[in-house]
Amino acid sequence: MSFASPLFLWYFLPAVLAAVLVAPRAGRNAVIAVASLVFYASGAGGTTLLLLACVVVNYLAGLRLEPVEWGFERSRRRWLLIGTVSFDLAVLAVWKYAGFATEQLAVLSSWFGGDFPVLELALPIGISFYTFHHVSYVVDIYRGERPALRNPVSFVTYIAMFPQLVAGPIVRYREIADQLPQQRTHRLDDIAAGFPRFAWGLTKKVVVADTLAPMVDTCFATPGEEMTFAIAWLGAIGYTVQLYFDFSGYSDMAIGLGRMLGFRLPENFARPYSSVTVTEFWRRWHMSLSRWFRDYVYIPLGGNRRGRARTYRNLAIIFVLTGFWHGAAWTYLVWGLFHGLLLVVERSCGWTHAPADLRARLARRALTMLLVVVGWVFFRAPDLGSAFVMLGHMLVPDFSGLTDIVAASVTHQRVVFLLLALVVVFLPASSGTGPFLESVRTREAHALRLGVLTLGLGYSGLLVATGSFSPFLYYQF
């Protein structure tokens, strides 16, 4: 059930909001928990049982990880934490990576005449996200940063809350723990505050990202022998814009939905394409994932406190994990290693901060954007061979132009939306497009966005009603 589907917009969301409005204060979390499980089961089917099993294990473990309440010795609590986190990661590894691992073993086996069986498991929706939520929950309790939730309904609300269950943002337990027990009273105010953010995300997704999707798909589906310089760059730039408007649009919708339900979810984007360095890019892109890896992997490994060699090693580990977290494929691993290498180079050369000179800063921003676009080719390509073919054509100009199939996908509407989107995302940060693209902080930006919403929301509703939408790109992760 996509946020941009008629079933969600016309039926599910109004029913949930109505139930939240009429439910007694103490029953609001129960309404959200039940609605979230229904939302998840509508798409996940039988794998909902896997989610519930993980919920039970982590809820019970959380209760016993509190040292004061249960009097566990430190070593016993540590082993309980290790066992719980190992369980969570094992579930993720089996369901997301076992098929990929057996495929590689099958390839090796075929070299020696063997026939190793390949395990085929359907990837449960949102498993990468709710696994990280579970790990955050038990670790934050073990560290004493927040108490365990005694009420199982509140725990299910945190883990399964439908705005963030399928594709984030990744909400660390410490960020929402204080909100869960509160009986929120300003329900109409929450709906009024959250709806514009939801509508803005819907506009970004349906009007821009979905409009560009057929053109981008056609470019990346072009056979290697037909690939040209123009097709390669059109596909790479188109996907750069499509992915941003799709994923940031989803995050806007999730944050808006969370607010309508009475929760304040963390921001996930801050104009990432305005970054002057790759280091800055990762402070602005998918920020909830970066914060999670920082708090639960990078800092425990030692962060940057134990010398350059350890710092570079830790960065490499983080980005290998970041790549594989996105998917079980060599393309994601290479994409992660590519960004990890860029961060190591920037840190070793002292390039982690923007230069003071304007021309140097503009040059660095252009270089950063170029490197990000190159990385997205690995991220989007179906395999490494296709990625290298596309990158090869991007490096060698030719005069072949577009094939007939690609040219047919490049409509006037898509060209206009692509150019407008490029103008908006690449404007300087001082232009005011930060508040325009993400959160609203000024009255002028609010008025401008309200005007865009008036047109965009109506057009989005028309597109949704006619079925002109596609699933969010991050649903596959």
Automatic annotation (TrEMBL):
Pfam families: MBOAT. It is a multi-pass membrane protein. GO terms for molecular function: acyltransferase activity. Keywords: Acyltransferase, Cell membrane, Membrane, Transferase, Transmembrane, Transmembrane helix. The chain crosses the membrane at residues 34-59, 79-98, 118-139, 315-342, 362-379, 416-438, 450-474. One of its GO terms (biological process) is alginic acid biosynthetic process. It comes from the Bacteria. One of its GO terms (cellular component) is plasma membrane. InterPro entries: Ac/AlaTfrase_AlgI/DltB, AlgI, MB_O-acyltransferase, MBOAT_fam. The keyword Transmembrane applies. It is found in: Cell membrane. Belongs to the membrane-bound acyltransferase family. This is Alginate O-acetyltransferase complex protein AlgI. It comes from Saccharopolyspora hordei.
